[in-house]
Amino acid sequence: xxxxxxxxxxxxxxxxxxxxxxxxxxxxxxxxxxxxxxxxxxxxxxxxxxxxxxxxxxxxxxxxxxxxxxxxxxxxxxxxxxxxxxxxxxxxxxxxxxxxxxxxxxxxxxxxxxxxxxxxxxxxxxxxxxxxxxxxxxxxxxxxxxxxxxxxxxxxxxxxxxxxxxxxxxxxxxxxxxxxxxxxxxxxxxxxxxxxxxxxxxxxxxxxxxxxxxxxxxxxxxxxxxxxx
Length: 229
Prior knowledge:
Blueprint: H1 3-30, E1 49-61, E2 66-80, E3 84-95, E4 98-107, E5 110-134, E6 137-158, E7 161-184, E8 189-199, E9 210-223
Antiparallel strand pairs: 1-2, 1-9, 2-3, 3-5, 4-5, 5-6, 6-7, 7-8, 8-9
């Protein structure tokens, strides 16, 4: 082989070796292909679990009898899909609501009087809750049964002297509808406001058959298994 061919062969071999080294170096610098991390999974407050709390509010009927009320509630929520919240809640409250009627009849030589006072002692409900959660906010409706206990006292008199007194008490039952919203202050505490309409029909201890409640309250949430699926 001539000297010229040897030189050409040596140059070709050197070029091939140099290209291979450059390619290996480029691969070493380039490294593995970068993959973006998966998007974060949205997180929602979990309303699932048992809870208990208290409330204060005002109540009134359509005849204008009004007063304050206060009591407590217990319940359970279960959250699904992941923003629908189903639950059940029971509550009970004492009230200061009273209604009274006075009558006077003037006859020959006598004045007859009568006084009737009715007090709504307590109200209670047991209802299903259907809600939709916006993370820490929960908007819900309620439907269920309602009960109320009232006591009444009727006195009669003649010419300013009492000659008769009768005491009565009654527990009425009916149904209730309600709407409300609740906000989770932390993992355990939440605050709510709620409106309820209680309809006792002809079983109402007062003259009107509907009773309205607006209340605000707080709940302590104990949590529970499951939810958010």
